[in-house]
Amino acid sequence: MGHSLLTNPKGKQARKEQRLSDRERSSRKARNSAAMGRMHSRGKGISASALPYKRTPPSWLKISSQDVEENICKFAKKGLTPSQIGVILRDSHGIAQVKSVTGSKILRILKAQGLAPEIPEDLYHLIKKAVAIRKHLERNRKDKDSKFRLILVESRIHRLARYYKKTKKLPPRIDYCQHTCGLREDTVGTSFLRFDWWTPGYGNERSGDLISTKLLRATKKVKNKNNALVDNDDLVMLEPEPNKPSFRVILLDNSSSSSKENVCKPLDKEEEVTLLDDDVSISMDGPYPQVCFSERAHSLIDENNKQAVIVRMLGRPIGYRALVNRIESLWGLTSDYKIVDLDNNYFLVKLASQNDYNKVVMGGPWMVYRHYLLVQPWSREFSTKENYPSKIIAWIKLPKLHYRYYSKELLQALASVIGNMVKVDYNTTDGTRSKFARVVVVVDIFKPLVPFIGVNGKKQMIVYEGLPFICYNCGKVGHIKENCSQGPKEQVVDKL
């Protein structure tokens, strides 16, 4: 019986047709995957990893769709990518799917608000990976494994670029350049426009920095396969909007900037302190000579360091190069900056842009290697002899404060009990949200925090945001209540 089946010509023909059909299905699947931009396939189950359709959000979720959209826009303005926003909403807010709450995905919400990245996130990270591999090959030319990996990554970039051009998510004339690891668009011959997608925020100046500008604009020359020198200073992308000034043009010409607050001051052209005859007084009395400067000289020094901050990491030291690499991706700076290594693990960071200064000072808390990076504005009273920065910037809330106090002058008077006020939340002064008043103050961490203040005989609670470890026993920053050295000690009584 079995022998007859093996020799049956109809059975052979059926098996041959089955093999042909399987081969045809695999080739069709390969053609479809080549046309798509996915780097992986869906699940193999009957539902293909598709979530069940739900029109309403879960009953246990109490947050409204408007609050979710506001949080998404707030995270996007801080420089987070759509995938990072989704992770935060899932882990911190309990929102597994934004679409089930708002009816739209995160990227579509960002596009409606004008906050979406100009290139897809997966393509951006692939090009970022290609840049890192090419930089590695410049230092290690004999690394054959990295050369092969670069070929694979660039093939994925070409594949994704073709797909996104087909779906009109990228301009049709944009192409990937292997020598510069960037996208460019030929206009006339070999000339091309500079495209600002490789500046911080990868196409959105409101976002944060994900690729180092110095890394992408390195001036080191390498040889290609034709032994021709290629300058890597063109590691930028092309701008499809000719009327929109690029980031480089804004830095070179401040007059083209649309914001008067974001005035970039070149750090290599700092004003020298010009001293007059009355600005210096020298005294030879005492055991050693003394040199004293006038108030005018100190004012000039303060003016030169007006956009400078003092940073120090809590819990562990950090090197100069490690700090440079971390803050480029952490702060998302859009202009020049300068880092000076001081004593006692302190660093002075000078920022050229006022917007960058505001973002660094008021955008904390900042975490580097799971440790807090304390940031405080520069002041003439600062000394590197202190083991920790004495002052930090913190947001404070005054919950249930009466609406009649929602004025900048009145809030400044209330915040003066805690520290110097730096900024008032726009929603507070505008009066659109009266649940709590929110201001930015300079807090002295060597002093106990003020938990309450009195306002016309009424007790007003103060809530601190973004501070590192706070001890509610002694009120100081840097440890928790269980590890407080000033805590009440339990008295052990021997029982006889």
TrEMBL record:
SMART domains: Ribosomal_S13_N, Ribosomal_S15, ZnF_C2HC. One of its GO terms (biological process) is translation. It comes from the Eukaryota. GO terms for cellular component: cytosolic small ribosomal subunit; nucleolus. GO terms for molecular function: small ribosomal subunit rRNA binding; structural constituent of ribosome; zinc ion binding. Transmembrane segments: none annotated. Keywords: Metal-binding, Ribonucleoprotein, Ribosomal protein, Zinc, Zinc-finger. Signal peptide: none annotated. Residues 14-27 have a biased composition (Basic and acidic residues). Gene3D superfamilies: 4.10.860.130, S15/NS1, RNA-binding. InterPro entries: DUF4283, Ribosomal_uS15, Ribosomal_uS15_arc_euk, Ribosomal_uS15_N, uS15_NS1_RNA-bd_sf, Znf_CCHC, Znf_CCHC_sf. Pfam families: DUF4283, Ribosomal_S13_N, Ribosomal_S15, zf-CCHC. The keyword Amino-acid biosynthesis does not apply. PROSITE patterns: RIBOSOMAL_S15, ZF_CCHC. The keyword Oxidoreductase does not apply. Residues 471-486 form the CCHC-type domain. Residues 1-50 are annotated as: Disordered. CDD domains: Ribosomal_S15p_S13e. HAMAP family: Ribosomal_uS15_A. Belongs to the universal ribosomal protein uS15 family. This is CCHC-type domain-containing protein. It comes from Gossypium anomalum. The lineage of its organism: Eukaryota, Viridiplantae, Streptophyta, Embryophyta, Tracheophyta.
